[in-house]
Amino acid sequence: MYAQALDQKDRSPVIAEDPVRLERFEARCTAEDKIEPKDWMPDAYRRTLIRQISQHAHSEIIGMQPEGNWVTRAPSLRRKSILLSKIQDEAGHGLYLYSAAETLGVSREELSEQLLSGKAKYSSIFNYSTLTWADMGAVGWLVDGAAIMNQIPLCRCSYGPYARAMIRICKEESFHQRQGFEIMHTLAKGTVAQKAMAQDALNRWWWPCLMMFGPPDQASQHSDTSMRWKIKRFSNDELRQKFIDAMVPQARFLGLDIPDPELRFNEESGHWQTGAIDWSEFRRVLAGDGPCNRQRMRVRRQAEDEGIWVRDAARAFAAKRAARRQAAAIAAE
Amino acid sequence: MDVVAAIEDDLFAYALMLGDSALVLSHRLSEWSGFGPTLEEDIALSNMALDLIGQARLCLDYAGKVEGRGRDEDALAYLRDDNDYRNLLICEQPRGDFAVTMVRQLFYAGFMQPCFASLMASRDSTLAAIAAKAEKEMAYHLRHAGEWVIRLGDGTAESHTRTQRALDEMAIYVAEFFTVSAVERRLADAGIAPDPLALRAPFENSITPILKEATLIVPSFAGGQYGGKNGRHGEHLSRLLGEMQVLHRAHPGATW
């Protein structure tokens, strides 16, 4: 999902970098050295990372909503605790990622403001609705499954704080994916209604999940530099293919049908081939016209607004306490 | 009815009281998921909801076993109506703003922490084991809510007003903590559960200094609303259960 950040146009003015430093930097990237916050880095590298890390963080935060939609209706106490823990993990991922972005010289407040103003994007997958309980399965199995394909290579990203955050995130994501598969498995082996619910969820999530990897390689804009700087290691199409090859056998194991009449195994390439992806839908959702774009932003802004007085109170109290301590220290002298 | 059967009925009812309060309050806390005033607090609220779901599951599972009619935690959570629920009324009140949530947590944990501390010495080893785990959680919830109530009470004029209002709204449900139902009376006499009356002093000892430090007016906790322990609830519980149970009840007998 997070590949989308790399496919946005960078509109900032290009800064002419010192060629000697740039060469040394690129040599470090090639040598798989980790770049740390205090190291010199090209301006475009910093901007790309801030954009990508913050978009990933925003996606985690907005991604809490479609799953939060089912917390109060989870059909068993076990499922309810798992779902709540999963959403809690996502808030935690948001936290690590905002912290990683802060090492690049931008504050969490600024990033949050960019999300609320609509300047920063989040993954378009979260603009789809979660209509049934099976969507909790499909989101874990497919959406988190697609996210993992994108994220595993990021554990080796050249930027140290991001790579380290991703190691922990990937461990948790992989657990999330397994629980999603387990929900699908339970439904697929369940009653007729439950199996139909699982198939319907797969029908609705399959194509949007293929779009999570971003536009096809020939239409992608940033890959060359990002690959050289070891931010991105695989192209959108390569990752999408890996995902398809992993998911088709899993769907078959579940006894569910991939909603693609043109899906076939290409003996020559050894890969599953899908029908054409409807990129007009992707562009439409990205441009703000998905089922839930407005709702997700409205809810996020509402949560921010309702928290203002709490954050103000916490700040005011901290200031009062500091002043009292100072006064006490002076009195003691 | 023989003595053992009578005790079993009481144990079942008592485990439901503990389990239902935890379940209903966890539901209210889970409504904060994605809405916390900060990311850190969102995570903390989910954590507390998870602690309470854990307690609810242990208590309901035990209630089902004591009852011996084959009802598991989910049958008890999802297939009972509101008048069969035995939770304290404070737990079912709507989520409210962050001040309401923190004041409620303070009251609930302020009561349940000494309750579980006493229950750890229960002659019933399962209840004692559940209490040993839950007491630690309640001590943490109490600390967390206490810190927030102080911050909010002594923060800004707005946060002070909201917190005082929350305090006055929630205070009317506190007296119910210390009412002694027939079940609790018999279990207290048998050394199985604490006497709720004995929990009033520890409750007030932990709550009062916090409210004073928060510059809030300590309510009297007199009078108020009762009925939860006997299945007589307010208007909100039926709706809460309606939402919680909708999917489970729509697919009778399904496994999830």
Describe the model.
- The complex is a heterodimer of chains A (333) and B (256).
- Chain A has 333 residues and is mostly helical.
- Chain A is 66% helix and 2% strand.
- Chain A folds into 2 domains: 277 residues, Ferritin (Up-down Bundle); 42 residues.
- Chain B has a single domain, classed as Ferritin, core subunit, four-helix bundle (Ferritin), CATH 1.20.1260.
- The longest helix of chain B has 29 residues.
- The radius of gyration of chain B is 18 Å and the shape is globular.
Radius of gyration of chain B: 18 Å
SSE topology string of chain B? HHHHHHHHHH
Spatial gap, N to C terminus of chain B: 37 Å
**Count of strand segments of chain A:** 2
Taken from the alpha-carbon principal axes, the silhouette of chain B is: globular
Summarize the helix and strand pattern of chain A as letters: HHHHHHHHHHEEHH
The unreliable regions of chain B are: none
CATH topology of chain B: Ferritin
Annotation, overall tally of beta strands of chain B: 0
Taking the sheet with the most strands of chain B, its summary is:
none
Largest sheet of chain A: 2 strands, antiparallel
The level of helicity of chain B is 55-70%
Question: Structural class from helices and strands of chain B?
Answer: mainly alpha
SSE-based structural type of chain A: mainly alpha
Mean pLDDT of chain B: 96
Strand order of the largest sheet of chain A: 1-2
Please write the CATH class name of chain B: Mainly Alpha
- Residue stretches of chain A low in confidence (pLDDT < 50, at least 5 long) are none
Compose a concise summary of this entry.
By secondary structure, chain A is mostly helical.
